[in-house]
Amino acid sequence: MQIKNIEKITEQTHLNLFSISYVDQRSHEKSWVFASRKKVPEVADNNFPLADAVVIVPFHREEKKLVMIREFWVPLGGFQYGFPAGLVDPGETIEMAAARELKEETGFALKTVLRTSPPIYSSSGMTDESVSLVFAACDGKESLEGNEDSEEISVLLLSREDAKGLLNTPELKFDVKSWIILEHFVKTGTI
After folding, report:
1. Which of 35, 54, 178, 183 stands 20 to 30 A from 130 (CA)?
2. What are the GO BP annotations of this UniProt entry (predicted)?
3. Which CATH number fits domain 53-188: 3.90.1110.10, 3.40.1190.10, 3.40.920.10, 3.90.79.10?
4. Rg of the chain's alpha carbons, rounded to an integer?
């Protein structure tokens, strides 16, 4: 496979479409359209040391429960169950972004980072966006005061039994990472 050309085909503020011309393994010329938040897509410049975004998997120390959110997503036309998440701002570390996003979306304070994944990709057929999973302990009181006007979020504190109930409700929409982590939590009681 050989990348021949990358062309930006939209001019939006936060997300754009790019077309890539490439030659496949049988020397056929082809093209692929994908979305990217970057000014220079990762296929053209592999020097991005940090993930684009963070997904925080918080466990509330005082409540001894897993923290999830239920958030309205316009492309889904409804609510999705997932974890607090957001973009890494310029100059932030993964841990700084995780603490900021957790506070903004739930009101909880990040106390301890337990582990962090390297940049991972969840929909590489459509986008080059990468995220780091940040498993963390948190505490404090719930508050939605940090939510933006475009965010409609409910905070959930889940026991293993609560989590099992969500997983057994087929009409709910889940983020793929959240489904896998929730299944693990139900089986083991750990994050």
Report:
1. 183
2. nucleoside phosphate metabolic process; ribose phosphate metabolic process
3. 3.90.79.10
4. 18
